Amino acid sequence: MQLFQRDRIAEVVAIDEAALEAVEQGFAALGSGTVVQPPILSMAIEESNGEVDVKTAHIRGNERFAIKVSPGFFDNPKIGLPSLNGLMMVFSAKTGLVDAVLFDEGYLTMVRTALAGAIAAKHLSRKDSRRVAILGAGEQATKQLEALQLVRDIGVVDVWARRHDAADTWAIPQRARGLEVNVHDRISDACRQADIIITTTPSQTPILAAEDLLEGVHVTAMGSDSPEKRELDESVLTRADVFVCDTRAQSESNGELKAFAGRTVPFEVVELGSVIANGQQVRRSATDITVCDLTGTGVQDTAIASFALGRLEKA
């Protein structure tokens, strides 16, 4: 059994084309029906403002599968500790023995989450998309932009955050990378000329409405990954010409389809893995509005953990 720490993992795994392909293949396997993926195991630790999620999946035919344990303790920054942590355990799919423990402290989750956003944009946004609006100014906002640039030639970024100073600070390194970055006080202004909108907040109430959407825009919603969170107003979902999610069940329990709890969803729901596996062209015209709700799946964790361990063993 091998043990790898975050620093070593980060040396061999980055947001790059190879990692994107690995995660995309995981989505394709899910869409083709060759994945065993149980529901997320989630536990709240309310007295510490914490939660723990456990995700796993097995891609049939693969030599390995992963189980990820991901704690989030959201008061930690007050005592100088990170909010998110965790590790991935990689098992042999032939014997069940532990091949490795990747003590990545959430690094691989950050990478695969960013890459999932890029994969959604690759398959749903217009190929000529050049301008992105990012709502939120945390680590995932940065990584979503980095991953998006693997699939779209982004030149202009519009950013909004609840704290203007946080958005100002976030913009500095992006400008240093040669991007034009505009900081906005209102979401409507940030989205006014966007080809792509990415929401990366922990909001528990909707922040994006249909009136903020231009014709032809693509929206990737990343922040809603638990029963308490929501970023999209119901009007965004009903206005969209195409609604895609990583899994319908998770979108209904943890994602944006919670808006229709107890009601019939009044539009077709397509899963991203199916789009990839079947080569579907769900965007029918340049004026279509597409929305993708990503809650994070166990197959993404197995895909990135297997990719990482393969890189580590070759290094």
UniProtKB/TrEMBL annotation:
Q: What Gene3D superfamilies does this protein's entry cite?
A: NAD(P)-binding Rossmann-like Domain, ornithine cyclodeaminase, domain 1
Q: Which domain of life is it from?
A: Bacteria
Query: PANTHER family attached here?
Result: KETIMINE REDUCTASE MU-CRYSTALLIN
Entry-linked InterPro entries = NAD(P)-bd_dom_sf (IPR036291), ODC_Mu_crystall (IPR003462), ODC_N (IPR023401)
**Pfam families of this UniProt entry?**
OCD_Mu_crystall (PF02423)
Q: Which GO terms describe its cellular component?
A: cytoplasm
UniProt protein name: Cyclodeaminase
Give TM segment ranges. none
